[in-house]
Amino acid sequence: MSTKKAISTSFVAIFILIITQIIAQSIASMFVIIKIPTGICNIIAGIIYAGLTYLILKMFISKIIKLPTSDFGMPKFAIKIRWILIAVLLPFVIKGSYLLIFNGKYVSSNMNGNQMFNTLSAGVAFTGIAAGFVEEMVFRGVILNALKKRWNIKVAVIVPSMLFGIVHVLGQDFSIGSCLLVIIAGTMVGVMFSMIAIESGSVWNSGIVHAIWNVVIIGGGLAIGEKMDKYSIMTYVLNSKDFAITGGEFGIESSVISLFGYIIVAGIAFFMIKSRKTNRDLSSC
Length: 285
Fold this sequence. Notes:
Layout: H1 3-33, H2 38-65, H3 81-101, E1 104-108, H4 113-150, H5 153-167, H6 176-200, H7 203-218, E2 222-225, E3 234-238, H8 243-246, H9 256-283
Parallel strand pairs: 2-3
Antiparallel strand pairs: 1-3
Helix pairs in contact: 1-2, 1-4, 2-4, 3-7, 4-5, 4-6, 4-7, 5-6, 6-7, 6-9
C-alpha cells in the first residue's frame, strides 16, 4: 500500500466514524420528535451507529481498497473467552480499587425513573457498546492495518494510539497537566487495544474490552471523580484533589491507576504474541 493510500484510507475511516455518528443521532432525534421515548431512541441510535459504520467500512474496504475485511481486523464475528474475562476484570478492579482505597462520599443526581433509563440507555447502548466497537473498527481495524501495510507494526501501533490520545483533548478546555495526562493515558490505552487486536486477530476482541470499559466507567451508573457527574445516576466524589489520582478534568480514565491497568493488560497481550511466535519458531525447527 502506498503512503498516499494509507493516509487517505485512515482519513476516510475517521470521516466515516464522524458521519455515521451524526446520522445515528439525527435519526434518533427524529424519533424523539414523533414521541418515541428518549431511552428507546438512544438504543436505536447505538444500533444504527455501530451497524452503519460496519456496513460502510465493509463496502469501502471491499469495493474501494479491494481487499477482504479480514485484512483490516474484521473477520467473522467471534470473541475469545480470555478477552471477555479481561474486559470484565479491568474496569471492575480499577473501579473497586477507588471505592476500597480512597476516601470519598456518594452523591446522587436525584434522577427520576425516566431520567435513569435515558441516562443508562445512552451510556450502555451508544457511548458504551456502539462507540467502543466503532472506535475499534476505525482505529485498530482500518487505520492500524493500513499503516501496517505501508510501514510496519510498530508504526501501526504507535501512530494511531497517539492519535487516539490526542483526539480526546480536542475541543476540551483542560489545563496543560490534564492534557498531558489524557494524551499519555489515551496513547497507552490505544496501545493496549492494539495489542489485543493483534493478539486475537480481530477488532471484535479489543471491541468487547473497549465496550465493557465504557459501560462500567462512563456508562452513567456510578461515576468516580473529584466532583459530581450530573450525567451519572450516582457519583463517588473523591476527597483527593491529586490530579494523578483523580485523572484531573478528564476523570479516572486518565489517572495513573487506570494507566497501570492499561500497561498490565497490554503486557499480557504482548507476551501472548511473543509466546505464540516463539512456539511457532520452535515448531518450525
